[in-house]
Amino acid sequence: MRPSWTGASSTGGCCPGALPFDAAWFRAQEERTMEHAGTVRSPVAHALADQSGLDRGAELAGVRVPTLVVEAPEDPINPPPHAAHLAAAIGGARLVTVPGTGHALPPVVHGPPAAAVTAHTAAADAGTAVG
C-alpha cells in the first residue's frame, strides 16, 4: 500500500506526464518539515481553516511589482488552471510552467524554476520584462 502522502508529490501513479515519485526524498522533506514545526498536526491546519473571505481578486489586481507565477501541471492540490488564474489576476504577471512537476519540487526539477526566478529577478532589477 502506498503512503497517503504520495499524492502530494510529483506523482504517485496518478498523473500522466508526471515525474517519477521519489518516496525517500519526499519522506525526508516531510520529516524535516515536522521537525521544524515541532508537531505532525500542522500539515492539515490550512485545509481545516474557514475558506470564506479568501477571494483576493481586487487585491491581486492592485499588485504593482514584477510577479512570477510558477505552475506545476501535475499538482493534485492546486492543479491547472489555478496558476493561470492567479497570473491573470495580477496584471503583468509572468506564468512559467515546469512540466512534470507536482506539489513538491524534488531536486530533479530545481533547474527550470531556479532559471525562471533568476531571469525574473534580473529583469526586475534591470527594469525590463521577461517574456
Characterise the protein shown here.
By secondary structure, the chain is mainly α. The chain has five helices and two strands. The chain has helices spanning 23-37, 45-48, 57-61, 82-89, 111-126, and strands spanning 68-71, 94-97. It has a two-stranded parallel ribbon with strand order 1-2. Strand 1 (68-71), helix 4 (82-89) and strand 2 (94-97) form a beta-alpha-beta unit. Mean pLDDT is 81; it is low at 1-13.
Rounded to an integer, what's the Rg over CA atoms? 17 Å
The largest sheet is: 2 strands, parallel
Order of strands across the main sheet = 1-2
Helix content: 25-40%
SS content category:
mainly alpha
Unreliable segments of 5+ consecutive residues: 1-13
Count of helix runs: 5
Mean model confidence by pLDDT: 81
Beta content comes to 5-15%
Give the total of beta strands.
Answer: 2
What is the chains' assembly state?
single chain
Question: What is the overall shape?
Answer: globular
N-C termini distance: 44 Å
> What is the ordering of alpha helices and beta strands?
HHHEHEH
Task: Map the helices and strands.
Blueprint: H1 23-37, H2 45-48, H3 57-61, E1 68-71, H4 82-89, E2 94-97, H5 111-126
Parallel strand pairs: 1-2
Describe the structure concisely.
By secondary structure, the chain is mostly helical. The chain has helices at residues 23-37, 45-48, 57-61, 82-89, 111-126; strands at residues 68-71, 94-97.
Relevant terms:
about 130 residues, mainly alpha, two-stranded parallel sheet, 5 helices, about 5% strand, globular, disordered N terminus
